[in-house]
């Protein structure tokens, strides 16, 4: 990558854009809501069950000017979801500032593994055992979404729930490939521990992106 472009990426003025699309939010608190998704490439957290592993290598995704991303998003929706990959790999300040100038509501889905940058109306924290969240994000997360792949993930979920702020909404979500096994366990767990809610990947049931 040319140094000039790399400098712009490092500054958040350009970002490795994997894909962008208008769809229905499928998970968590805002499920069922129309939103424009911006998927940023680059992630070194490395979850073995990740369903977008093609996002991991940022070099595979073209550096795109933030103004072009904003123009595309503002043509479709007032709600934008920035996801990845791990979007906080990059400085999100310039992109979110430009989106805010257009009056957008901006959500992020993040593992919290890197320092929180940018301005957000909704922060979905989905922590991973491999690379734990930065301490400061627990205080500002609006929802905690823990992916349940095996029984030990319930223990991890409780560890993470003990760290978030009192207003944070708690979700347990079955990992898609293991949903038939884990969903009944999640249902039982939530019934016994009603501070939690069940989150499902409803977009996959609806066969939409």
Automatic annotation (TrEMBL):
Q: Does the keyword Metal-binding apply?
A: yes
Q: Where does S-adenosyl-L-methionine bind?
A: 49-51, 85, 126-128
Q: How is the cofactor bound?
A: Binds 1 S-adenosyl-L-methionine per subunit.
**Residues annotated as binding substrate:** 24-26, 39, 83, 209
| Top-level EC class | lyase
Q: In its UniProt record, which GO terms are filed under biological process?
A: tRNA queuosine(34) biosynthetic process
Q: GO molecular function terms here?
A: 4 iron, 4 sulfur cluster binding; carbon-nitrogen lyase activity; magnesium ion binding; S-adenosyl-L-methionine binding
* Cofactor requirement: Mg(2+); S-adenosyl-L-methionine; [4Fe-4S] cluster
Binding of [4Fe-4S] cluster, residues: 43, 47, 50
Q: What is its EC number?
A: 4.3.99.3
Q: In which pathway does it act?
A: Purine metabolism; 7-cyano-7-deazaguanine biosynthesis
Reactions catalysed according to its record? 6-carboxy-5,6,7,8-tetrahydropterin + H(+) = 7-carboxy-7-carbaguanine + NH4(+)
Note the Pfam families from the entry.
Radical_SAM (PF04055)
UniProt KW Lyase keyword: yes
What InterPro entries does this protein's entry cite? 7-CO-7-deazaguanine_synth-like, Aldolase_TIM, rSAM, rSAM_sf
Q: Provide this UniProt record's keywords sorted from A to Z.
A: 4Fe-4S, Iron, Iron-sulfur, Lyase, Magnesium, Metal-binding, Queuosine biosynthesis, S-adenosyl-L-methionine
Indicate the segments forming the Radical SAM core domain, all copies: 30-209
Entry's Gene3D superfamilies? Answer: Aldolase class I
Q: Which PROSITE patterns does the UniProt entry name for this protein?
A: RADICAL_SAM
| Self-association state and partner proteins as the record states | Homodimer.
Q: What does this protein do?
A: Catalyzes the complex heterocyclic radical-mediated conversion of 6-carboxy-5,6,7,8-tetrahydropterin (CPH4) to 7-carboxy-7-deazaguanine (CDG), a step common to the biosynthetic pathways of all 7-deazapurine-containing compounds.
- Give the UniProt family note: Belongs to the radical SAM superfamily. 7-carboxy-7-deazaguanine synthase family.
Q: What is this protein called?
A: 7-carboxy-7-deazaguanine synthase
Organism annotation: Cochleicola gelatinilyticus
């Amino acid at each position: 990558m040319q140094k000039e472009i790399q400098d712009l990426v490092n500054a958040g003025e350009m970002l490795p854009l994997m894909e962008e699309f208008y769809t229905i939010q499928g998970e968590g608190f805002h499920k069922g809501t129309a939103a424009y998704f911006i998927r940023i490439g680059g992630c070194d957290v490395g979850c073995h069950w990740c369903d977008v592993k093609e996002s991991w290598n940022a070099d595979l995704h073209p550096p795109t000017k933030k103004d072009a991303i904003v123009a595309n998003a503002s043509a479709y929706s007032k709600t934008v979801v920035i996801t990845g990959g791990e979007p906080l790999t990059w400085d999100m300040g310039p992109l979110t500032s430009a989106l805010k100038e257009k009056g957008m509501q901006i959500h992020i889905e993040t593992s919290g593994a890197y320092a929180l940058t940018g301005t957000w109306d909704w922060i979905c924290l989905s922590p991973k055992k491999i690379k734990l969240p930065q301490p400061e994000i627990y205080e500002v997360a609006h929802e905690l979404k823990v992916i349940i792949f095996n029984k030990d993930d319930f223990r991890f979920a409780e560890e993470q729930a003990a760290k978030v702020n009192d207003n944070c909404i708690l979700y347990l979500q079955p990992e898609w490939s293991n949903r038939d096994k884990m969903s009944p366990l999640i249902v039982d767990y939530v019934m016994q521990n009603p501070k939690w809610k069940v989150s499902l990947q409803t977009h996959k049931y609806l066969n939409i992106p």
